[in-house]
Structure formats: structure tokens, C-alpha cells
Cysteine synthase
Amino acid sequence: MIEYPTIESLVGNTPLIRLQRINPNPSNTILLKMEGQNPAGSVKDRPALNMIKQAEARGDIKPGDSLIEATSGNTGIALAMAAAIMGYTMHLIMPDNMSDERKAAMSAYGAKLHLVSKEEGMERARDLALEMQQQGIGIVLNQFANPDNPSAHTLSTGPEIWQQTQGTVTHFVSSMGTTGTIMGVSKYLKQQNPDVQIVGLQPQEGSSIPGIRRWPEAYLPTIFERERVDLIMDIAQTDAEQVMRDLATQEGIFCGVSSGGSVSAALQLSRQVNNATIVAIICDRGDRYLSTGVFNA
């Protein structure tokens, strides 16, 4: 009997591709992990599926339950897909300034959306998720404190990068939102080679980059362990957006703003080091940003 794959089997094992034209230092290799190839279109497919699977395995939830999560976009889309695969109702809370494509994608998967104002932001979204849980509406997965978020990357993203580079990776660059990606990948890569440099990105003061946060201390994700990051770089919104556009027009890589931030940092690193293999996360696709006009500048 033929064993056909299911949609969840397509999560992970994404390609690692080489920058061809905009790398400023030919002695370095800059590689991009193309997470937009995941079925719901972002790196968040990995932790979304893992958080639900592990909660179910522990008996914390069962199919038919209602789940709740605060999200700036990609995690919400991924959770909406995972909930549809596994038979859960998904309540998603997000700031109302997120792109129309993100909201539409969540709704298309059957999720129920709850919006807070741009001014209230993710802090209010996170508080509302906990309030809804207290009201008995559902169970909060809490990507910001859930160890199943980074463990998804320790189990999959990190090993893939190590295998795809044949152990030659010297630098790993990732935007920091929930910090799940950088925490999980750092744990795995440092186990293989403690000298691998882990570079995290946060927005400059005054910059607004979807998916990258500069958290107030009270809201800093509890999964974040500062010692797992060797260098934190501030990224300007203008630089992230310009590199995002350059990737599309000069490399044929269509991605979002936080991915532009990751590659902007990788390009800065490439000007400072030699003979390095720099891996950056392309966390999603550019089509979910078209309505914002960011590609028109």
C-alpha cells in the first residue's frame, strides 16, 4: 500500500540557498534558510505544530478543545493551520495594524480573530489571551514561555543547518520576536561547535519591523536566555525594508521585512569578517506584506 504524505509532513526540511549578487565580501558565503517554503509560509510552522503536538501528548489538550494565542502574524497563521490539521478551535489575538493578508490567512484556516489597537500592541494582546483563558474560553499555548517553541528548532532547524552546511557554519543570524528560533538553533549549534557565533536582531529605537521586537523588561519572553546569544544587533527599519526590496530585485528572493533585517545584519557581518559561512533565517514570504505598500518605496 502506498503511504502518501500529509500536509504536516511538509513542515521543515527547507532549502538553504546562497546569496549570489549582494554579498559584499566574496571570501564569505551567505546562506539563507528559506522558511517561507513551509506549508503555512513561515518558520513558525515548526513551533506551532510542535506546541500543539506536545501539549496533546502530555494530555494538556485534546482534539475539540479551544486554544488561544497572542500573535503578531506568522505564529497565528501557523497555529491556525496546525489547529485545522489536528482538530482544534483557534482563537488568535493580534494588533489591528498587522497586514490584511495575515488576517485573511488566519481566517481562511478557520481561526477566530480578536484585535487590539496598534497602540496597545502585543503587550495588550498577551494580557488579553490570559484573561480569555481565565474566562474559560480556551487554553493559552503561550509561545513566549513555552519550551516547546524553542525545542522545535533544536529538533529540526538547527540539525538541518548543521547538515546542510556540513558543519561549516560559523555565524547564525536571526531576528528576535518570541526568540524561539534563536534559542532553539543556538542550543543545537553550540552543542556541535561552541565557536559558532549566534547573532540576534532587535529593532532600533523608533523602528517598527513586523516579527522583531524590543520587549519591555516585564514582557521579555521567559524562554529567552541571554547567554545563548553572542551578539545583539540593532536594525533600522529603513535598512530592513531596503534589503528586503534588494533581495527581490537583485536576488529573486521574495520575503518579508524581518527577513530583510536578518540579511541586512548578515551583510554587515560579511564586511567585518573573512572566510565565514553565515546563515540567516528568511522567516516568511513577501506576499503577506503587499497590501502595506512596503515594496513600492
Remarks:
- The chain has eight helices and ten strands.
- Residues 95 and 121 are 5 Å apart (CA to CA).
- The beta strands are 16-18, 29-34, 66-70, 89-95, 112-116, 139-140, 171-175, 197-203, 231-235, 277-282.
